[in-house]
């Protein structure tokens, strides 16, 4: 993963959250005779300063705590025991970068948890 210089929040947090939500958003309801590709979704631009945090967040897509029941499943949050080693490896001991990336990942995590109707 390329190292990207970042400011306090790595650029506009709205872009970072929009990209995370777009990645985890539920598939659109597909009408009979149509394919998911037939539906146009607004593309989400990922700024260069957001790519590092988004790349780490996407790499964690299989590391969610979940509650599974009769009605389906629900995400409860990321497994932080999987997040910490990934951050350690990505930041190579840079504590300020570690803190910044961790904050960005937590911000995206909260946005994904607020997606309505997102089943596992």
Features:
alpha+beta; 120 residues; 43% helix
**Morphology:** globular
The fraction of residues assigned to DSSP E strands is 5-15%
Structural class: alpha+beta
Q: Kindly, what is the distance between the CA atoms of the first and last residues, rounded to a whole number of angstroms?
A: 27 Å
Low-confidence stretches are 1-10
Number of strands: 2
- For the record, the count of structural domains works out to 1
Helix content: 40-55%
Radius of gyration: 16 Å
Mean pLDDT, as a whole number? 81
Order of helices and strands: HHEEHH
Counted by DSSP, the helix tally is 4
User: Looking across the biggest beta sheet, what order are the strands in?
Assistant: 1-2
- What about the largest sheet? 2 strands, antiparallel
What's the short story on this structure?
This protein is α+β, with helices and mostly antiparallel strands and 120 residues long. Helices cover 43% and strands 11% of the residues.
Describe it for me?
Helix content is 43%, strand content 11%. 16% of the residues are buried. It has four helices and two strands. It has a two-stranded antiparallel sheet. β1 (64-69) and β2 form a beta hairpin. The chain has one domain (13-113). The model is unreliable at 1-10 (pLDDT under 50). The chain has 120 residues and is of the alpha+beta class.
């Amino acid at each position: 993963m390329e190292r990207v210089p970042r400011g306090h929040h790595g650029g506009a947090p709205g872009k970072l959250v929009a990209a995370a939500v777009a990645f985890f958003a539920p598939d659109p309801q597909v009408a009979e005779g149509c394919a998911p590709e037939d539906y146009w979704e607004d593309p989400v631009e990922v700024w260069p300063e957001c790519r590092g945090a988004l790349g780490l967040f996407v790499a964690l897509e299989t590391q969610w705590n979940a509650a599974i029941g009769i009605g389906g499943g629900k995400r409860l949050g990321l497994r932080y025991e999987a997040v910490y080693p990934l951050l350690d490896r990505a930041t190579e001991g840079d504590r300020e970068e570690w803190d910044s990336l961790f904050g960005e990942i937590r911000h995206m995590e909260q946005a994904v948890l607020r997606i309505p109707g997102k089943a596992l």
